[in-house]
Amino acid sequence: MEPGRIFHGSIDFGPPSGVMNKFQLVVECKQVFYRVFIISSEATEWQKKYRADHIVTLDKLSHQFLHHDSVIDCSQLHPVKVQAADQHIREKPADLKCKISVAVRDEIVQKVGASKLFPAEDKDSIAKSLARI
Description:
6-stranded antiparallel sheet
C-alpha cells in the first residue's frame, strides 16, 4: 500500500471501543506500521465541537466506492501493522480501495499543516508522503 490509498479493515481503538472495521486512509508508510487517518460516515458531536478544523469531507463523487459523502478525521494518526494490513488485503483484495483525490489530499495537507496537534516533523512527513499522489 502507498500513501493516499484507502482500505477497509479492522483497527483496535483500545477500551472502550475495541476492534472495529473502518475505512482507513494510509497517510505514511513506516517500516513496521502504516500511519492512518480514520474515515467515518459522519463526524461525531465531539469532533464537530472540538475538532471541526481537522475534519475533511471525502466526497462520493470522486470516491465511488462510498455510498455517501464521508469524513476523514485528521486529528489523530493511528498505527496499523504493515504485516497484518497487507495480509488482510491479500486475503480480501476487494477491501483495497482507490486513492484520495488531489482536492482531498490538498485539504488534508492544509489542515494538518495548520494543526496544533502535530509536531512540525509529522506535518512535514505527512505533506511529503501525500505529495506523491
